[in-house]
Description:
single chain, 4-stranded mixed β-sheet, 15% strand, PyrdxlP-dep_Trfase, 7-stranded mixed β-sheet, alpha/beta
Amino acid sequence: xxxxxxxxxxxxxxxxxxxxxxxxxxxxxxxxxxxxxxxxxxxxxxxxxxxxxxxxxxxxxxxxxxxxxxxxxxxxxxxxxxxxxxxxxxxxxxxxxxxxxxxxxxxxxxxxxxxxxxxxxxxxxxxxxxxxxxxxxxxxxxxxxxxxxxxxxxxxxxxxxxxxxxxxxxxxxxxxxxxxxxxxxxxxxxxxxxxxxxxxxxxxxxxxxxxxxxxxxxxxxxxxxxxxxxxxxxxxxxxxxxxxxxxxxxxxxxxxxxxxxxxxxxxxxxxxxxxxxxxxxxxxxxxxxxxxxxxxxxxxxxxxxxxxxxxxxxxxxxxxxxxxxxxxxxxxxxxxxxxxxxxxxxxxxxxxxxxxxxxxxxxxxxxxxxxxxxxxxxxxxxxxxxxxxxxxxxxxxxxxxxxxxxxxxxxxxxxxxxxxxxxx
Length: 424
């Protein structure tokens, strides 16, 4: 058995996985855990428990959706109640209306909504909708922003695409690449220069970058995008798949006071089940079929299990002061990380954070690429040794949940101190 408590069982599962899955996994970042992934058999509160009975404090949380922690009792109870009634209909159910109304009650920019099955589907359809509405073909995105795994988004993308050195995937037609313009995040000059020259259907942006580590917008960046898109007749799409119901109950748009034309959501609004959503003003959203001619459909759209899990999660967020509590936990982590002796910077927005080694500031994707990824990977393994699971990629985000209570945080801080002492 190695230091992380992995045994022949994990090695055996990994060997078997390599023989049946490309690269051994079903999403690339899962292969970033070295020398092989641990296999989870159970999640409880702030912890994951592996097949080898190793227990980790989980700061990955399904890469963001589990803001209440694993298997939150109220959410679980409502999911089981729904399962008793059935879990797929292909016809409307009341709970989809309830979740839609709950979301729009907190996000003023969303008058109508369409549920889909992933963040990738949400951004793909948002871009199609923007093109259909504006009758323009080109879009503008930002270097290192990750908007899912479809062709138009995989141009200078962040997240696992960057981790494995493929910001531009093979298999994307050159004609597609020519419709996507790219600027540096936090650079309004580049944006205006492109809008002056090109008819841009939409600018799509992560209001807080969460797939190059955590990179917040600089002052006036988001408001500048809002003004520029209005001036040049383009739509503004906020990709809030990560930030929706995380940095505030009204998302990053509420946090920064900027209303986009279209919002994409995912992760938290599904309570840990597959989910995506596109929302916006009714005159834009009504371009979607069947009221309009921008096509979208899906057998699993508005699946009742995802709907009830998301609705239940938001109800808890409303009642339990979740965002404040999770942000306080994240601040404790960030403060402790900031005491590490190795040169570094910690970026944090509420309950999202990441540490970058060897740099003094990270304001865009290029800054993040200059960080010492090898040192981050070394520190991540030190944390695993003391029972703490941070993202295995420099370009992902550390999240906290409601389950990271005082007792868990005391254990986590002691673990981080120990990892730091061995790391420095």
